[in-house]
Amino acid sequence: MNNLRRLDLNLLVTLDTLLSEQNVTRTAQRLNFSQPSVSVHLAKLRDIFDDPLLLPGPRGMRPTARAEELRQPLQDALRALEHAISPSSPFDPASATNTWRISAFDYGESTILLPALAGLRSAAPGTRLAIFEVTPSLLTKKAEQGEIDLAFHIHECVVPGLRHRILFSEKYVLVGRVGHPKLKAPLSVEQFCQLEQVIVSPDGGGFHGVTDRELSKIGLSRCVVLSVPHFLFVKSVLATTDLVAMLPSRLVRGEPELQAIEPPIEIPGYEMAMFWHERCHRDPAHQWLREFIAGSV
């Protein structure tokens, strides 16, 4: 270890070249050093290894037994070091075999991952996706530890310690089955409040959300009769009953069994964002994945 502390990279490169050229003059020319500088390096190396390393010979210099022992390990070490500090090679999705771990609730799955999936499978067929539901408070820790690569969440709930990129803005619409007898615009606020409604409560069991907060400002309340934890179940409920729900507009695009109208009260929307940790910010594969997903929504 003491010898290692006395070494620097220039000494090792000089030794590797000397063992290859077995000539101080040619070594100096290859390394663009002066001949005295190479001689100084050789003197330091001899002191560190307590061995002459190279001895005068009839046609230059010949390595000692110790120098021969060093030749291959030194070449391997310098090659590994050069590889380690070389710039990252461009990412090739066609030949990639990455497994990406993504945190998303069912809304993010439906509106972000699903639109990107077919294109992702075509562009990077050898890759895999693992999707998790992660509690927002744990996102930073999971990302730091490399357990997730990307997360999709509401931008206003900015996750500390993570980078982010806004993907799109979302608004709420009033949704019910096609042909619903009471789902006709224009709808008054009073009529809206009388409709039996479903609410999505990710934490489970809640009957109060952003719509109820806005209604309370004008002294009104609505009739929420069902609380569920996931959006997927809500769409099935709406298609088969006369219940209605305030849902993000992207969630019901292209749903033939559902219709959406503007609600009679303005409900604040939100921005959906993609989050990731600094550790993978400059990784070419990660950069490609982020750009691909952002271009798919």
Automatic annotation (TrEMBL):
A Pfam short name: LysR_substrate
Keyword Zinc-finger applies: no
Gene (name only): syrM1_1
UniProt-recorded name of the protein: LysR family transcriptional regulator
InterPro entries associated with the record: LysR-type_TF, LysR_HTH_N, LysR_subst-bd, WH-like_DNA-bd_sf, WH_DNA-bd_sf
Xref: SUPFAM superfamilies: Periplasmic binding protein-like II, Winged helix' DNA-binding domain
Transmembrane regions listed in the UniProt entry: none
HTH lysR-type domain segment(s): 7-64
Domain of life: Bacteria
GO molecular function: DNA binding; DNA-binding transcription factor activity
UniProt keyword terms in alphabetical order: DNA-binding, Transcription, Transcription regulation
Family of the protein in this entry: Belongs to the LysR transcriptional regulatory family.
Record Gene3D superfamilies: Periplasmic binding protein-like II, Winged helix-like DNA-binding domain superfamily/Winged helix DNA-binding domain
